[in-house]
Design goal:
Layout (H helix, E strand, L loop, with lengths): L25 H13 L5 E5 L3 H7 L5 E4 L3 H4 L11 H13 L5 E5 L9 H15 L3 E3 L7 H8 L5 E6 L5 H4 L9 H16 L4 E5 L3 H10 L4 E4 L7 E4 L1 H4 L16 H17 L15
Parallel strand pairs: 1-2, 1-8, 2-3, 3-4, 4-5, 5-6, 6-7, 7-8
Helix pairs in contact: 2-4, 4-5, 5-6, 6-8, 8-9
The structure holds 3-methyl-2-oxobutanoic acid.
């Protein structure tokens, strides 16, 4: 079964939303676990998207689009995801929903918008879903967040969990190094994953863990795991789109570059600048002649 669709070539900036088609659903994502484990269904494909045009381009190829709070670093140049706000997530989430019609759109709950109480989490999740049209939220954390995951799931908010290296906890963790290198930490991460999955998460991002931990989690939980810096044996994979497209010269070890957009943009902008300076742009095709 292929999940790749063709890009709608009629799309332009003037008509940004292609004709709607039925989106992948949360139950369909969850149900893929059994088929993936049995080898009869393909692994899940997820990428981050923050803007309408990126969403349009990624949507035909993805099962899920993640409006990640990594936008704090990628779009806003922030030092971490900690300063990202609900307002930023809502604005970018709405753009991604407008630019997609196939993939499930999942939106990150930013740091400080869900940890204080289950009620705070529900209010933040409801706001994001109402203002963006996203079908689900993602939140970071393990056993401590399991009651919140259950509270939201039982109240109409599909939750994607996120365990292992949780970037919003960078100030507690002291950096972005891979987790689960010693036995106690590995066992804790597996317990975190199991708690969140048992609480009703429909899928689980497993980030930055040593491979045996990712494999153990994938075997232990009933919902699909989506790895990043984890293992090919996860039920799916996610990357930050700008990383895999080659927009950054430096990327983490777990990123594979599938494109070289930084070099292409550099070449295109250099050509534009040269044309402007040589008065070769605009040419006769790009200027308006008077009528008659
Ligand atoms: O914010 C993000 O982009 C993420 C992914 C890296 C999983 O959480």
């Amino acid at each position: 079964m292929s999940t790749t669709y063709t890009v709608d070539g009629a799309t332009s900036r003037a008509t940004p939303v292609p004709a709607p088609m039925k989106r992948v659903t949360i139950p369909a994502i969850r149900a893929r676990k059994a088929g993936i484990a049995a080898g009869t269904a393909e692994p899940l494909v997820m990428l981050t998207a923050y803007t309408v045009r990126t969403a349009q381009l990624l949507d035909p190829h993805c099962d899920l689009l993640l409006v990640g709070d990594s936008l704090g670093q990628v779009v806003y140049g922030l030092a971490s995801t900690v300063p990202v706000t609900l307002e930023m997530m809502a604005a970018h989430g709405a753009a991604v929903v407008r630019g997609s019609h196939h993939a499930v759109v999942v939106i990150d709950m930013p740091f400080g918008s869900y940890e204080a109480s289950r009620e705070q989490a529900f209010a933040s999740a409801a706001r994001l879903m109402k203002e963006t049209g996203a079908a689900a939220v993602k939140l970071e954390g393990g056993e401590a967040m399991a009651p919140t995951v259950r509270f939201l799931s039982e109240r109409g908010v599909p939750v994607m969990g996120h365990v292992g290296l949780t970037p919003q906890a960078v100030n507690v963790l002291g950096g972005y190094a891979a987790r689960g290198r010693d036995e106690a930490e590995a066992a804790k991460i597996v317990a975190d994953a199991t708690a969140v999955a048992d609480a009703g998460a429909f899928a689980l991002v497993v980030e930055g863990v040593v491979e045996p931990v990712a494999v153990a989690i994938t075997r232990a939980v009933a919902c699909p795991t989506i790895g990043i810096g984890a293992s090919a044996q996860c039920d799916g994979q996610v990357l930050v789109a700008e990383d895999m497209l080659g927009l950054f010269e430096r990327t983490p070890r777990f990123v594979k570059r599938f494109g070289d957009l930084a070099a292409q943009i550099d070449a295109a902008v250099a050509a534009y600048a040269a044309d402007v300076r040589a008065r070769a742009f605009p040419g006769p095709e790009q200027v308006y002649a008077p009528r008659g």
